[in-house]
Amino acid sequence: MNPFKEYFIKGQQNKDEGHLFSDSWLQEWRKSINKSESYSKQAAAWNIPLILLFKPLPDFFKSKNSVGIYLDLRSGTCTELRYAVSDDIETNCVVLSASEKSWLQLLQSGKNPTLFLLNGKLKLEKGSKTLLVSNAGAAKALLDAAPSNSGDQIPNVSEQESNIGNNRPTSEPHERFSTVTKGLDFESFPMKLFQKAKIYGVWNPSDISFEKDRSDWKNMSADEQTIIMHLSSLFLAGEEAVTLDLLPLIRVIAKEGRIEEEIYITSFLWEEAKHTEFFARFVMEVIKTQPDADRFHGPFYKKLFYEKLPQALSALDHDRSPAVQLRASATYNMIVEGTLAETGYEAYYKMLDDHDLMPGLREGVLKLKQDESRHIAYGLWLINRILEENEDLHPSFENLLDELLTDATNIIHEIFDRYDTVPFGLEEEWFLDYAIKQFQHRMEKLKLNN
Amino acid sequence: MNPFKEYFIKGQQNKDEGHLFSDSWLQEWRKSINKSESYSKQAAAWNIPLILLFKPLPDFFKSKNSVGIYLDLRSGTCTELRYAVSDDIETNCVVLSASEKSWLQLLQSGKNPTLFLLNGKLKLEKGSKTLLVSNAGAAKALLDAAPSNSGDQIPNVSEQESNIGNNRPTSEPHERFSTVTKGLDFESFPMKLFQKAKIYGVWNPSDISFEKDRSDWKNMSADEQTIIMHLSSLFLAGEEAVTLDLLPLIRVIAKEGRIEEEIYITSFLWEEAKHTEFFARFVMEVIKTQPDADRFHGPFYKKLFYEKLPQALSALDHDRSPAVQLRASATYNMIVEGTLAETGYEAYYKMLDDHDLMPGLREGVLKLKQDESRHIAYGLWLINRILEENEDLHPSFENLLDELLTDATNIIHEIFDRYDTVPFGLEEEWFLDYAIKQFQHRMEKLKLNN
């Protein structure tokens, strides 16, 4: 038997005054309402009697020829509190009905009348719901004033209810909003990139058909399949990594109040998510088995994508100094995107273009490449913004670039090392040269003063 | 005079052996190379002489009838190191040229040969650039072995160069990638929402014309202009707030490894950025003056949008417990989006629809509303996911909802309180009722077990 039912039956059996819903309990409640500062303040404008109907009607109320409880409420005081009779309902009043269980929860367990009203446990039989919800504070004060039962059968849950998820010291309010105080700088480089992203970055990976890709896959030799799966497994993890690892950077940019930049990076992030989806679809729908990371992700790849990249970015959680931002952006934008991804796209083309293989994959890669060119442009712009303000960091930044370029070339070595003869006639030397050229293009755009 | 130049001139003036580029210095360098474990390991496969040309040729080298330095390198050792003569260049060798300053930077200041090669300070006159870059480690070891100058004129920056932005303990590597190990769950609710977002959420705020909006604005009464500006200033800050405040939630979801959810939230975030852009454009291009936040953002609005919302979300930075996630999502998705924004859209329609005013604004608001319906659907799904796993939180969550609904209704009161007669015939009672209904619709979708 539930505690409410148990308690209520106990209240009925024991006719002693002072128990729940007894005459003296009702009078105690009235006195308590009139002592409540909270009620008198919040109900100052409430001037209409309230009737609490019990539906279905418990025997106890039947025995009193009553349908529930009548409260006459005037300007923050309760002038009368008694058993309600059915004729009361016809007068000018607000009528609420609920089951005995719900009334007990409201009167004794600190449950919230607004929520009960919204979830249908409490019904408004007469009166305006808006009026009632607007006076939610007054209603709560009214119910809170009800004398508690003398026993301990009903657990009072109000203590455990307070402050859910709010046990932290208050932190990070907004001081002001940029768009309110000064609008957006539509002429800024990030907003111009954002305009491009809204036009060129809205392609849908799901629209790309892999029909021919599937038949091409079946016709490939085992070696050819291996290298396609190899490269795709590098992109799969790579795109997921950048989708995850961009988050600390966008947070720092937002915290610095650079709303135009944050707006651009939202498109950047969304595009990375689509790239992740694209490669996941390709692997699931064409290759049809998940790649074996331990097989295809070598030590140098793992070092960069499993460790250095996430660490360079998540370091921003604790330290958003220019040096940390430079490492984050150089690792992400210059090496992962600007050198390795670019070289990977070229590998797909070299393998597939001449023989018109896997048009779906190539179509997606072409779109990816377009998106990435905006990402890299933003990254270089960000690096230059930081370099311009921090000339002392130039020498160490150059060393960082060298370290990262070595990471990139090591990955390219590592890929080719697995093959005696690389399918599709790919040559390591050509790819190393291509990667270095990509890197060099990015370098040339940096404003390094030596 | 720069320190390199100064040093070099000093070296030229002082002919003592042991100084830079003297015969004995060259022999010291050769010995040092042959003692270098780093060089012998990394250059094991290098078997071709290297010539370092000085361009323009300094007098010191001219006096030796030399064009630079010749190093014969065999399987990780240096068999000969001497002044180079011009005929050496014609032999089978790799030739690099640089200015005296650049050579000094490379040989004495730990500057990086790969970067010098990429930025043009070091030129490859003969040989393969890829070969050279592939042997970057060997080249660095070769240069590092050069005897340091005896003076202290040249600052050695190699110490300050190390570890830029990398002074944090390593943290948060990726253990594995979901897309690699198990692919994406395209049947999950978040991925289905993502599919919708890629179709319906790609509208471009910049495509919306405000031409008629501008003429409508000019024809409005001062009171009408005031309420349009009032409502727009609430949306302006509101959209910027949600664009900023979503970031801690997406981070938590990503950290929990819920890649499908993160993918969906990237579209959610991108849409919020576009909503921010939309209202910024409307205010800048139609109203043409920034709204006065102090005038339009009342105490209850400020409490929610400047404090409670950012705090509920940024609390996730330190505590991603279910209770904190519930408060974050209830505040963001149920109240700000699901109750207040929805009511605000309705206010625009009620003011503008009947008189066919401001079609650009209405078009944008219609798109916003579509986007928001996906956001709210995700929020409810998220709340239900957490509620299902945490039944103990149900009672306190209900109290939280009541607290937040009160925040929302207080904001609506506060808005209408500023007007004796609200322009366009808006009525407070109608809006309170609408807001409560929106809230109730959301409530009904929650799996609260009482």
Descriptive key words:
homodimer; 450 residues; Nonspecific Lipid-transfer Protein, Chain A; Ribonucleotide Reductase, subunit A; 20 helices; 62% helix; elongated; disordered N terminus
Q: Biggest sheet of chain A, open or closed, and with what strands and sense?
A: 5 strands, mixed
What portion of residues of chain A belong to β-strands?
5-15%
What CATH calls the topology of the largest domain in chain A is: Ribonucleotide Reductase, subunit A
Largest interface by residue count?
A-B, 121 and 122 residues
How many helices of chain A does DSSP assign? 20
Number of domains of chain A: 2
Describe how the helices and strands are arranged.
2 copies of one chain form a homodimer.
Chain A (H helix, E strand, L loop, with lengths): L2 H11 L9 H13 L1 H6 L7 E5 L4 H5 L4 E7 L2 E8 L9 E5 L1 H9 L4 H6 L4 E4 L2 H6 L1 H9 L13 H4 L16 H4 L7 H12 L10 H9 L2 H34 L3 H29 L5 H4 L2 H16 L7 H31 L6 H31 L4 H24 L10 H17 L6
Parallel strand pairs in A: 1-4
Antiparallel strand pairs in A: 1-2, 2-3, 4-5
Helix pairs in contact in A: 11-14, 11-18, 13-14, 13-16, 13-17, 14-18, 16-17, 16-19, 17-18, 17-19, 17-20, 19-20
InterPro entries (chains A, B): Ferritin-like_SF, R2LOX, RNR-like, RNR_small_fam, SCP2_sterol-bd_dom_sf
Organism (chains A, B): Rhodohalobacter mucosus
Keywords (chains A, B): Iron, Manganese, Metal-binding, Oxidoreductase
